[in-house]
Amino acid sequence: MRNVLLISYILLCFFLILFSYLFIDRNLLLFNRFYSGFSLQNRSFAAVIFVIFITFLTILYYRSILNAKKNNLSLPSIKKLVAIVSTILFFSYPAMLSYDIFNYILTAKVAFLYHENPYIVMPVEFIGDSNLAWTRAANKIALYGPSWIALTAIPHFLSFNNIILAILSFKAVALLFYLATLKLIFKLTKNTLSVVLFALSPLVLIETLVSAHNDIVMIFFALLSFYLLSKKKIFWAAILIILSIFIKYATILLLPIFIYVVLKTLKKEKVNWNKIFYFSAWLMLIAFLMSLLRGEIYPWYAIWPLSLAVLVPQRKFLLSLTLTLSISVLFRYIPELYTGSYFGITPIVRELVTFVPVTIFVCMWITKKFLWLKNSR
Amino acid sequence: MLNISLVSMRKKFIHKTTLLFIFLVFFFNLQTRAFASEYVLPYPGFMPGNPLYKTQEMIDKIERFYSFGNFARFKYYLALSDKKLVEAKTLFEYKQYLFAYKALQQSSQNFDQALIFLSNAKNEGKDVSQKKELIKAAAAKHIDELKRLEGVVPETFSWQPEKEASTSLPLKASIEEAIKLREPSL
């Protein structure tokens, strides 16, 4: 069974990276040889293929969770699976669904090549820069915190101003933080189920290993700060939570819980970490929903509540809710993939595919609880 | 007879209309004001005498450190120049000539700094064509405002501080100097 799972993941990831190269930007001349324009000319087919990928990834994910629950998936097996999956997906084209990686690369260039403040000077002001041809939203100042900007110095200098090396460097950053987060999840929970729940989540695989979003970096620092807090290293925990906040700001909602734990630690009182992670997950879910106020919910934001919900798998409602959400948000890409437009019917369909499954789940859960309560009387 | 007079009246009308049309075409083609009017100056901020004026000045100074890089510094100094010009204009209107004179000098100094950082950016190899257009528009707008002020301020103003000798502020000369500083950018 384990071998079947492994082979299935290998094949699926292999086809996923092939599929990702159908989305190469026409202006990315270094990838010219691979450009086919397939995704633009065959939108409906691309959308259907994407649905098939999500479906198969979800099936394999479900099988992995069942195996982990039955203790059929040992830690060495999980490590092997993760190593193989992450190595394969490392070579996927990162701008299949989101162009954020190009924004990371160009913002780093603004800061470290042009020596300009990326919070004042937009990438589009550097007329003639080759990266502008394939970077979207270059007419915005830096959206992320100074911790992220500082961190991007490493992949920037490792890229030697070459776009392929830059893509690989930024993907390497995402990969390293992904692996480090998995190690941290195991350290926090000593539970292989928690590791599997996060490591093999279709959302995490696509948004972290394919698209290389920086949410994994923010989550890693937040979890590391909790880990150090559990070891009573308050000072370093505080540094890390601040670092996390200054990656992408969402973890600022964890501050009240952080301060609560610090006070308890100083008073030498026992900390119920399960409760801490449980409430933290709900706070991150609120952060996820609050992104609506900013304009739009992006699928990769669902990683925030998922990363904390997996730490308390015994909290079934929370876990099931975040898992349902983590799958349904991936379907947000379908309307735009199919129509090629962000307007018209796309916004409505996007919200429907995200929130209808979650609503159905919540209603079913409430009904089940209500019936259970009724029967137990 | 009547037909001949109608025809001649018609000819005169066409002749005058054609001349008017040609005049209007040349008139609008010679106008350069449209370019300056696209550049928008900021609203007046806190004025001297307001309790928050000094705080605002401090924030402006701190912002200088935040604005690292030649493009960022260019934007910073140009924005500050605009702000001080609006401040000067408002103070001149309220006949607060000492403060207005100082604000105008600061505006010119900041404009000069903006030009220096633009030149530095060009030396770094950055494409400054867009920024040049921006400073051209800014210069045109500044000159517009300064010329309006020139018409209403006195030649000089004698400032008499308490227990000190009076100082004569050359208001019109300072406005002319400010215009001369900005003209090469057009």
Model description:
Chain A has 377 residues and is mainly alpha-helical. In chain A, α11 (215-230) runs antiparallel to α12 (234-248) and α16 (316-328) packs antiparallel against α18 (346-376). The N and C termini of chain A lie far apart (42 Å). Helix content of chain A is 69%, strand content 0%. Chain B is extended. Mean pLDDT of chain B is 87; it is low at 25-35. With 186 residues, chain B is mainly α. Chain B is built from seven helices and two strands; from the N terminus they run ααααααββα. The A-B interface holds A 114-117, 119-121, 125-128 and B 66-72, 75-76, 126-127, 129-131.
Short description:
Chain A is mostly helical and 377 residues long. Chain A has helices at residues 2-20, 38-41, 43-69, 75-90, 100-112, 146-151, 153-159, 163-189, 192-199, 202-210, 215-230, 234-248, 255-266, 273-294, 303-309, 316-328, 333-339, 346-376.
Keywords:
heterodimer, A: 377 residues, mainly alpha, globular, B: 186 residues
Shape of chain B: extended
Low-pLDDT residue intervals, each spanning 5 or more residues of chain B: 25-35
- Report the order of strands and helices of chain B: HHHHHHEEH
Roughly how many Å is the radius of gyration of chain A?
A: 21 Å
Distance between the termini of chain A: 42 Å
Task: For the record, give the distance between the C-alpha atoms at the N and C termini of chain B, rounded to a whole number.
Answer: 59 Å
Write the layout of secondary structure elements.
The complex is a heterodimer of chains A (377) and B (186).
Chain A: H1 2-20, H2 38-41, H3 43-69, H4 75-90, H5 100-112, H6 146-151, H7 153-159, H8 163-189, H9 192-199, H10 202-210, H11 215-230, H12 234-248, H13 255-266, H14 273-294, H15 303-309, H16 316-328, H17 333-339, H18 346-376
Chain B: H1 2-30, H2 33-37, H3 53-66, H4 70-93, H5 97-123, H6 129-150, E1 157-159, E2 167-169, H7 171-182
Antiparallel strand pairs in B: 1-2
